[in-house]
């Protein structure tokens, strides 16, 4: 793997996992020493992160991790509603029912598995990622799937605001199960409605968590 790719992946993960918090200045010299690469790969990595919207130039301060505001959360969810509600409908029309029936069964069990231990949470997030990937594949629309993948980069960081709330994770698992079930039974309107419920509850919880923080 190229040094710039290693630097990009390391910095991206640190930003998504909140090890590098909003407003953190990413100085090339400091990051090159921390990551064990030269400044050129770090510069290339920062350019890619800026293109994704995870970092931004801040005048004489150099590059900083972008902030997450209530306005930005609202904007992300406006786009998320546009894309994901339509995608759920298309998946219900075009997807393989058996794939989503299996995901539904796994998601039904997820709330009972989610506790305070990190391994279980990582398994849950991996399961949700599999649902996302199944929807991406089912819609047969490369442009929409690419747009949703780009959006999820920012949602992953926003989601960390509420990552410690076990009750919300358990409720979200049930909501994802409802989405998978609606797609499995090939009911576009039910899939849309289940997605809308999930997005509404997620947004309400995230904004409350952001305000509390």
From TrEMBL:
<keyword id="KW-0238">DNA-binding</keyword>
<dbReference type="GO" id="GO:0003677">
    <property type="term" value="F:DNA binding"/>
</dbReference>
<feature type="domain" description="HTH gntR-type">
    <location>
        <begin position="1"/>
        <end position="68"/>
    </location>
</feature>
<dbReference type="Pfam" id="PF00392">
    <property type="entry name" value="GntR"/>
</dbReference>
<protein>
    <submittedName>
        <fullName>DNA-binding GntR family transcriptional regulator</fullName>
    </submittedName>
</protein>
<dbReference type="InterPro" id="IPR011711">
    <property type="entry name" value="GntR_C"/>
</dbReference>
<dbReference type="InterPro" id="IPR036388">
    <property type="entry name" value="WH-like_DNA-bd_sf"/>
</dbReference>
<dbReference type="InterPro" id="IPR008920">
    <property type="entry name" value="TF_FadR/GntR_C"/>
</dbReference>
<dbReference type="InterPro" id="IPR000524">
    <property type="entry name" value="Tscrpt_reg_HTH_GntR"/>
</dbReference>
<dbReference type="Pfam" id="PF07729">
    <property type="entry name" value="FCD"/>
</dbReference>
<keyword id="KW-0804">Transcription</keyword>
<dbReference type="InterPro" id="IPR036390">
    <property type="entry name" value="WH_DNA-bd_sf"/>
</dbReference>
<keyword id="KW-0805">Transcription regulation</keyword>
């Amino acid at each position: 793997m190229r040094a710039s790719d290693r630097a990009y992946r390391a910095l991206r993960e640190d930003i998504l996992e909140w090890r590098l918090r909003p407003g953190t200045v990413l100085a090339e010299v400091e990051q090159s020493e921390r990551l064990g690469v030269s400044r050129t790969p770090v510069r290339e990595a920062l350019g890619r992160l800026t293109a994704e919207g995870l970092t931004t130039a801040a005048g004489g301060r150099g590059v900083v991790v972008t902030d997450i505001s209530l306005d930005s959360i609202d904007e992300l969810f406006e786009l998320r509603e546009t894309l994901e509600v339509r995608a759920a409908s298309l998946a219900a029309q075009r997807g393989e029912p058996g794939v989503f029936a299996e995901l539904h069964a796994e998601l039904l069990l997820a709330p009972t598995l989610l506790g305070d231990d990190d391994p279980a949470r990582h398994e849950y997030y991996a399961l949700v990622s599999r649902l996302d990937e199944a929807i991406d594949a089912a819609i047969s629309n490369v442009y929409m799937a690419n747009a949703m993948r780009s959006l999820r980069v920012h949602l992953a960081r926003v989601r960390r605001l509420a990552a410690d709330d076990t009750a919300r994770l358990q409720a979200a698992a049930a909501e994802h199960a409802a989405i998978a079930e609606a797609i499995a039974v090939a009911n576009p309107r039910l899939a849309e409605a289940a997605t809308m419920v999930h997005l509404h509850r997620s947004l309400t919880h995230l904004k409350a968590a952001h305000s509390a923080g």
